[in-house]
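REQUEST
  id: r-88c1
  op: predict_structure
  target: RibD family protein
  payload:
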Amino acid sequence: MPMVIDIAAAWDGLLQWRQEGSLPEHLSGPPMTAAAEQLLSLYRPLLEGPSRQAVAQMAQSLDGYIATAVGDSCFVTGEEDRTHLHRLRALCDAVVVGAGTAVTDDPRLTVRHVPGPSPARVVIDPHARVPPEAGVFTDGRAPTLWLVGPGNVPDTPTGVERIELPVDGNDGFEPARILDALADRGLGRVLVEGGGITVSRFITAGVLSRLYLTVAPLVIGSGRAGSTCRPARAFATHCDPPVRRFTLGQDTLFELDLGEDG
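RESPONSE
  id: r-88c1
  status: 200
  body:
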């Protein structure tokens, strides 16, 4: 009886692809289960793309919120989407969050739901407002970079690399400059994870190749909106990228192909 690739073997193959830079032979021959085929289909474009690219992941409710008015975001989407997020982390060199997410959620940004390496963690913090005792700075679970604006800032926590960047006219860093700084350190494949303002800045700057947007079948009513991009003046001028859809438990994942230049 011929070997059938299951989801665990397919994931091992994707990790091998990430490390070696080419599709493993066992993923192009034997038949696969439906779950393994979806897994390969979902992440293949990311691994086939250039070694330097930025993608983003966002999870929201049907009415477009990523958290309630008091900031509760645990959890908008289900377990399957959290597994997807950890897979994205494992396939990328770096994961990026803004200062607001680092302060509010105190995330670990490591790979725990699936086998795989944890990426370097990058905190965008122009005004150095993330406390030095934050878990991302102190747990030692992955290399961590702290992007701050020029001037006096608190002492850099042990084991954390501090990078000073010029602040732009929007009181932040130009996304392209962030990606250049990471690429200079060998971190080419970058996942922009949160929050909504940070992801929206990267979308608006046109530097994302792909956006993974997971929508949960619930209505929050009010709270923190997912996207804060500039509104389109008319439907004819609105971004209309190619989209693929995947089912993740009760949630729906939309993969938007934004092109190599966003």
